[in-house]
Amino acid sequence: MKAVTQVSKSIYRELLQNSNDADATTAEILITTSASSEGGKEVVSQVIYRNNGLPFRTQDWARLRKIAEGNPDAFGVGAYTMFSICEEPLVVSGKKGEEEAMAFFWKGDSLWTKTGKAPDGIINMSATLNHSNVQDNTAWTSFMLPSRDPYPLPDLVEFAKFLTASLTFTQCLKNIRVYVNSTLQLNIQKTIIESHTIETPKASSFWRNDGAVTSSSS
User: Fold this and answer.
1) Contact, 143 vs 162, CB < 8 A?
2) Which residues have CB under 8 Å from 31's CB, separation 6+?
3) How do residues 183-208 score in pLDDT, each as one tens digit?
4) How much helix, strand and coil, in percent to the nearest 5, is found in the chain?
5) Measuring CA to CA, how many Å separate 178 from each of 27, 39, 135?
6) Are 126 and 50 in contact (CB under 8 A)?
7) Residues in Cβ contact with 133 at an 8 Å cutoff, skipping those fewer than 6 apart
8) Measured between alpha carbons, how far is 159 from 38 in angstroms, rounded to an integer?
9) Superfamily the domain 6-189 falls into
10) What is the per-residue pLDDT across 120-154, written as a single tens digit (0 to 9) for each?
């Protein structure tokens, strides 16, 4: 397994930041692999990234749509890196039961978008794990990224280090879970401990007057 590439870091850094901006507390990365044609090694055939933050609003869909117009400030420059691994990403978001979808697709050399009510099949794909028979009531915002060219599964230890470091800079986002073929592989939880004041001991026969240095006969 290979280390996390700079391209992957850019994608996930952008998605994690967008999740935090949407007040998400949890993000999940659902990786699907298949055997490669060369040597049978595991390669990533699809990634679904999702968060439980605020559903997309009209202005959010409009900003996302501007990516197809070549606007680098539309949804964050990092969002463009999705196209380095995925030909036609698909985004699903909205209140439970009212999910909408935006599909990116190519006509010749031009990138287009299509928006509409998300079909049930897409909702099920983005909001449940394959092995789960439990109804998922979370209103996920999902980014579906089928691989243009399947690439090696990242080294999970290195991936965990990167995700842990990323959580350092998020205020709302506190939990990241990574699944590989529906099996939970990483569960990273950030706990914030409230600060408190530590009082230094007062001067005594065993403390110098500054209250910070001890002395003894030895």
Assistant:
1) no
2) 44, 46, 47, 153, 178, 179, 180, 181
3) 999 999 998 788 888 776 665 555 55
4) 25, 30, 40
5) 9, 25, 20
6) yes
7) none
8) 24
9) Histidine kinase-like ATPase, C-terminal domain (3.30.565.10)
10) 888 888 866 654 444 567 789 999 999 998 888 98
Cβ neighbours of 53 (radius 10 Å): 22
Mean residue pLDDT across the chain: 83
Residue 90: name the closest of 139, 151, 130, 143 by CA: 143
Determine how β-strand 175-180 pairs with β-strand 26-35. parallel
pLDDT score recorded for residue 76: 54
For 165, the token pair is: 């470091």
Taking residues 72-76, report their average pLDDT: 57
Strand 42-51 to 141-152 pairing: antiparallel
* Predicted confidence band of residue 82 (pLDDT cuts 50, 70, 90): confident
Q: What is the dihedral of CA 56, 143, 113, 46, to 10 degrees?
A: -170
- Locate the domains of the chain by residue range: 6-189
Task: For residue 90, give the amino acid letter.
Answer: L
The CA-atom distances, in angstroms, between 119 and each of 45, 159, 179 are 22, 32, 24
Task: Please tell me the number of Cα atoms within 13 Å of 106 on its side-chain side.
Answer: 8
The mean pLDDT of 36-42, rounded to a whole number, is 75
If one counts every other C-beta atom within 10 angstroms of the C-beta of residue 158, the result is 13
